[in-house]
């Protein structure tokens, strides 16, 4: 989660703001459906106003603890209105909760495709929100507040970038990869290092393989698995200094990081004076962006 996402989520716990967003969102949802039914112009769902409640269209089991949830827009022509890289702020009411739980999620669907938005949600042990979202069935709804711009990506600003992800932290990284490789005007090269606990935790593997086949000179992915199966084709271990020295090119202009706190701390340091693994490899603070 980006610093702006953390700030907004924290502020959104203020009761008056929660009530205001919920009330405005309910009214705006009704307005959106009326407008979509009568207007020939597509609406930007996450434009300059509250998106409102969106209906769950379908679900897909990705692995033992992750689902892909597709939420449809009121009109099939409606667009997301989001830019690379953005997340969306959601409100949900898990069972037994009096106040709404507020969480940002990074869409994994192509932001330019109209009619829907896909979220990839990992179910955590004891996680009220993730458990609630996994319980949703087609026809149920989820309240979406607004989009949050995490990073202002400029095509071709960098010749090569490095992407380092751990676990479910792959979602904003994947959105950036999509935004670059699906844009015929963007020629940026990328190396992705993806660390997971087990092979079952390698999310979006098929998508990465397709990109690797289509753009072999521009996209490379390296997996490292903490607990690989016997005979696994993947390297064993965590994201380490030795691994990064081995797989990264001699020159990379920008490094994007997203993952569990332990991974981010190891890579970027604990604070002032501690530069972490990336600092030891010669990367400056302004070359590193944490989602």
TrEMBL record:
The keyword ATP-binding does not apply. Residues 49-155 form the FAD-binding FR-type domain. The keyword Transmembrane applies. It catalyses: 2 Fe(III)-[cytochrome b5] + NADH = 2 Fe(II)-[cytochrome b5] + NAD(+) + H(+). It is a single-pass membrane protein. Keywords: FAD, Flavoprotein, Membrane, NAD, Oxidoreductase, Transmembrane, Transmembrane helix. It comes from the Eukaryota. GO terms for biological process: ergosterol biosynthetic process. It is found in: Mitochondrion outer membrane. FAD binds at residues 103-105, 122, 128-130, 171. The chain crosses the membrane at residues 12-34. InterPro entries: CBR-like (IPR001834), Cbr1-like_FAD-bd_dom (IPR008333), FAD-bd_FR_type (IPR017927), Flavoprot_Pyr_Nucl_cyt_Rdtase (IPR001709), FNR_nucleotide-bd (IPR039261), OxRdtase_FAD/NAD-bd (IPR001433), Riboflavin_synthase-like_b-brl (IPR017938). Its EC number is 1.6.2.2. GO terms for cellular component: mitochondrial outer membrane. One of its GO terms (molecular function) is cytochrome-b5 reductase activity, acting on NADH. Its cofactor is FAD. Gene3D superfamilies: Nucleotide-binding domain of ferredoxin-NADP reductase (FNR) module, Translation factors. PANTHER family: NADH-CYTOCHROME B5 REDUCTASE. Belongs to the flavoprotein pyridine nucleotide cytochrome reductase family. This is NADH-cytochrome b5 reductase. It comes from Talaromyces stipitatus (strain ATCC 10500 / CBS 375.48 / QM 6759 / NRRL 1006) (Penicillium stipitatum).
